[in-house]
């Protein structure tokens, strides 16, 4: 039997779409996300911030612009794995109400990595989940890596 190490295992990956009224942005959620990443509880793959205006038009906000409504998430300006695409942005925009800002976040539950490795070493298999199964994420990430 081959032993699985935590180096070649992923935890469950989730996405959330958090919507905020444009006039109530405090940056507190961004700071809480920084704390989760810094403590190793989650690993951030993607973060996209969208604004939906009163007329329904959508704008993807630049995270590095301190004047934008995305300022609370500027710490994550480089968070792009390639897992989120244009279709995801469109679906997120459709779910949003006018006059809101939303953060679409894809993150790995890195706290679960030791548990996943232990379960695999014991012959455990994930047979049902409300999250993206770890093997699917590993395959998707492998497919994104350039071949040499």
Record the SSE blueprint.
Elements: E1 13-21, H1 28-38, E2 43-52, E3 58-61, H2 86-95, E4 100-108, H3 113-121, H4 134-144
Antiparallel strand pairs: 1-4, 2-3, 2-4
Describe the structure.
It comes from Nocardioides mesophilus. It holds the Pfam family DUF6325. This is DUF1269 domain-containing protein. The radius of gyration is 17 Å and the shape is elongated. The protein starts with 12 loop residues before the first strand and ends with a helix. It has one domain (6-144). The protein has a four-stranded antiparallel beta sheet, covered by helices on one side. Helix content is 28%, strand content 22%. The chain has helices at 28-38, 86-95, 113-121, 134-144, and strands at 13-21, 43-52, 58-61, 100-108. The chain is an alpha+beta fold and 148 residues long.
